[in-house]
Structures are given as C-alpha cells and as structure tokens.
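From: lab user (bench 3)
To: helpdesk
Subject: output format question, protein + BES

Hello, I'm new to running complex predictions and I'm not sure whether the block I got back is the full result or only part of it. Here's what I submitted:
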Amino acid sequence: MKIELTISEIQQQKSAAIIISLFEGVKEPSGAAGSVDGALNGALQALLAGGDFRGKRNEVAVLYPAGAIPAQRIILVGLGKREKFSLDVIRQVAGTAAQKARALGATQLHTVVHGAGAGDIESQQAAEAVVEGTLLGLYRFHELKTELKDVRSAVEELTLVTADRSQAAAMRAGIHAGESIAAGAILARNLINRPANIATPTHIAEVAQEVAAASGLTCCIMEQDEMAERGMYSLLSVNRGGGEPARMVILEHNAAQKNLPTVVLVGKGITFDSGGISLKPGKEMWRMKGDMGGAAAVIGALQVTAALDLPLHVVGLTPLTENMPDAFASKPGDVVKSLKGLTIEIINTDAEGRMVLADALTYSGEFQPDAVLDIATLTGAKVIALGAHVAAVMGDEELTARMRTAGKHTNERVWPLPLFEEYGEQLKSDVADIKHLGGRPAGSITAGYFLSKFPPEDVPWAHIDIAGTELSNKARPYIPKGATGFGVRLFVELLRHWDD
Ligand code: BES
Ligand code: MN
Ligand code: ZN
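Helpdesk reply: Thanks, we reran it on our side. This is the complete output you should expect:
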C-alpha cells in the first residue's frame, strides 16, 4: 500500500473515502469534522442530534456528500470517551474505518490523524498508530485460497491529512515507523497462519534469509550436524520423532558493532506440536501450527529493528523443529545432556518447548549479551492463569518492568509471575541433574524456573510466555481472527526505548 502525508484540509480531498472521527457525546463537531460539517450544511450535526451516531468507540457511520465536497463518501468513526483515549484507541478506530472502507469497495483513503492535538499524544505517535491500525486491520491471510469470493477490493492508497504544517516531519517519521512495525507483525502473522506442512523449519529459515537479504541483517542458519557437534542434545531430543530437519536461525542487526549494547531474543519455534509420544488429544490440535509464534515474533522484531536502524546490537535465535511421535522419538523417562552440560530427565514429551529453549538460551552466551529475552508459546497453564489476551513475564526484575511498560504502550500486555527458589524443588530428578517438568502446581512458573538454569551466568534474562495469544478466536479492530503477531510490537517497543 502507498502511504503518504498531505498538508491540507480533509474536506478538500478528492478521494474514494475520507475518514474523520468524533469523541463520544460531542454535539457540535470542531476541527476537521467541523469543517466537513460546514461544507455539508450541518449534515454531521443532524446525525448527532438525531442520536444516530453517538461516537462510541469503533462506531461507524457513512455519509454521502453528493458533490458538496470532492470525496465520494465520508466514513465517520467514534473515538469513545475522551478520558479513555489512547494510542490503542487510535489503532482500533483506524483499523475499523479501513475495514469499513474496504467493505464498501474504496481503494483510496484519506484520513485525519485521530488524536493529533488531543491530550498528551504526540503527533508522531498518533500517525504511527493510524498507520499500524490501518495495515494490521486490513491484514488477511488468503495466500492459500484459490479464489477470493468475499473480497471486493484491496485498499491501495492511504493518505494522512493534516492542516498543521509544523507536524509534518513528525508525522512522516510516524508513518515510516508504523509501516515498518506493521510489516514485521504481518510477517509473523503469515508465518503463524501458514500450516505446518508449509511452514517447516526449512521454510522459516528460508524466509529469515530473505528478510535478512532485504533488510541488511546478517543471517546464519545452523543445521543439525552443527547442533550435534556443539552438544545441543536437549534441542535435538525434540526433533528425533520429526520428519523435518531441525534448524536454528541466527539473525543479527549491527553484527559488527561490538561497542553497542547486545540484546539477544530467543523464540520458541515448534513448527507443529503434536505432543510427541505424550500425544495431545485431537481436539483443536491444529492450533499447534502456531507453536512457532515465539520464533515468528523474533524474526518479525529483527526485521523491524533493521528497518528502524535501532542503535543496538540485536541477535535473534529461533530453534526450529516439529515435535512428532515416531519410532525414534524421545520417550518419557529418557535422559539427555544439554549444551550447558546439565543432564535432563524428560518426563512428558509434550513439554518440548523448554527443551529447545534451554540450548538456545545457553548458546546466546556466544554473543556476550547485556540481556537475553525469550518468548514462547510455552504452557497451557499460562492460558488458565491469565487467559489468551495477556502474556506472562518472569525473570530479571528490571527487564520485567521494561516489558510491562512496553506492553502498556503497545497493548501487547504482559503480567509478572514470580520465580521463587522453592519452585526449584519441583524439578528435582532421581536420575538426572534436573527434570523438565514440575507437576501441576504453578505450571508456567516451573517452566520458567527450568529455563532460568540455562542462560549465561550473570546476564539479565526474562522469559515471556505467550501461550494462547498467538492465535485469536475472535476478530478485533486491528487483530483479525487467526495469527496476531503478538510479540513483534512488544519487542520493538522495548528495543526502541532501551536507553530510557
Ligand atoms: N505448546 C504447548 C503450550 C500451549 C498451550 C501453547 C496452549 C499454546 C496454547 C506446550 O508445548 C505444551 O504442550 N505444554 C504442555 C505442558 C505439559 C505437558 C506439562 C501443557 O501446557 O499442557
Ligand atoms: Mn507441547
Ligand atoms: Zn509446544
């Protein structure tokens, strides 16, 4: 989509659809909406007076100016209550309006920058949110459909309109950031929506290489023989039952600049989690095509890191394998030696995520990191504890606090869980150094506690459990049903504010 900024008045735009907005309860529109109302002889005021439009968040009305202004139609969207206004409301209303425009067949949109000038939201952030909301709201996964029956058109052009020239530079920066961030989240969504027969470890590694070539990242793909030479037998234990070879993507931004702070992001990349020999029940098992949501978030975040040229050395690691049952598959009771040197007793082959992360976390030490974060669709217990719209975070307190702040700003929210020593008692093994499962109590925490044994010593580390957030059952204004891309915007926000 072509995205531009115009310094002009919205009512002067010749467009398939102009998008304007109003707070709840407004009776006399001012600003851009006021100008449109004036040009239309009070048509907006009539709509408001009759109670036909109340300005509720994501409420939509369509008006036809019939020649009174050059636009073919006006899409009016509600911003909700003024005191509840936020960046997320901007993303939502932008997504809602864009979806409405597309449903009407409009291929060219001109929009006000909702909230520019309202309260304490800066115009750069407002423009960024408009672009993010529009692109993420219009996202569809249709690459596997042979015919697009329910689709009238695709939106080809989006123009942000502001009358205030002094805001132009900031808004242009916001447009660039918004486009880059949305592209990263969309990359992650595509990888997650693609089924496991397509999005294999090999496929994901190829996509990472393409991303690297296009964005200037360095990319290395570690293959199985190197994993074995290094001693990554925890990771490899998960691959034994799979037909697809394991891979580890190693993406780097600013690889040569060793003076910059180094942050390593590790993403769980189980391309399909059948449970292995500890086979999952069949109901909804298809959802486990999304068990590489952490890896997708890391690859997406690295793409954005390069696009925004963040002044950090960022490394993305994604251990990739499927988890399948087979004659060679790992069995409950098996003991394997991890890269760290710890022997691990496998209790349930369905607790595979922590096995691949363990070795990747240890491997992160090669980059002499200042911080290590992992992101994983790790435990069903996390969905029971917090639901499917919030992620859990545990580990280093400062990193945890930073993640919470990033979560507030992106609305990819995270909530802390403790890693008290006592949880370690649940991981004592009779036969090995550690077992990978701690029983039913505090399942998400004992998973995190297990992981805490593997990152390099004395490096701040945090773990984000995103189980359930990767696939949405319900369409939301800028999160259509299916893959959400959760984690990309969150990580990018964290990295953009690294020096704060
Ligand atoms: N990938 C799953 C966790 C998951 C559950 C992700 C729901 C997304 C939505 C993980 O590998 C898993 O199977 N965990 C098991 C662990 C159990 C065997 C201790 C679980 O949570 O049931
Ligand atoms: Mn599993
Ligand atoms: Zn899993």
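A quick orientation on your result: The longest strand covers residues 313-323. Let us know if anything else is unclear.
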